[in-house]
Amino acid sequence: QVQLVESGGGLVQAGGSLRLSCAASRSISSINAMGWYRQAPGKQRELVASISSGSNTNYADSVKGRFTISRDSAKNTVYLQMNSLKPEDTAVYYCNANLVVLYDVQTYWGRGTQVTVSS
Q: Whole-angstrom Cα distance, residue 80 to residue 119?
C-alpha cells in the first residue's frame, strides 16, 4: 500500500506561484507512475501532470509551460511547481500513485490540498 500526503496549497493572486508536495509512505522508485490531478467545483477530476518511474512527464495542455512536475527519490516526494497561476487553476489538487503488482494496477490517492487563485 501507499499513503500519500499533499501539502503546499493556499491562496495566491493571479500570476503568482505555488509548489505542491506529495510525500509517499514508501520508496517512489518502486511506484510505476505518480501524478497530480485537480477537481474544481462542479467539474470532473482531471489529470494535471504525471511522471513515470523513468522520469517521463506528461502535462495537460492547459498547464504546459506553466507547471512542472518533478520527483525526489531520496525524499520519496513528488512536486508540482505551478507558475503564472490563473483563476481557472483554482481547484483541489490530489496526488495519485499507480503501483503495478503482477498484472494488477493499484491506484492510491491523497486527501487533496486546496489551491485558490484570486483575480
A: 21
Q: Which residue bears the cell 483575480?
A: 119
Q: Is 87 left (phi over 0), alpha (psi -120 to 50) or beta?
A: alpha
Asked if residues 3 and 25 have their Cβ atoms less than 8 Å apart, the reply is yes
pLDDT digits (tens, 9 = 90+) for 62-83: 999 999 999 999 999 999 999 9
DSSP-assigned letters across all residues of the chain: ---EEEE--EEEETT--EEEEEEESS-GGG-SEEEEEEE-TTS--EEEEEEETT--EEE-GGGTTTEEEEEETTTTEEEEEE-S--GGG-EEEEEEEEEEETTEEEEEE---EEEEEE-
pLDDT of residue 118: 97
Which residues have CB under 8 Å from 41's CB, separation 6+?
Answer: none
Instruction: State how far the Cα of 21 lies from the Cα of 69, in Å rounded to an integer.
Output: 10
CA distance 63 to 48: 7
Give yes or no for residue 30 having a pLDDT over 90. no
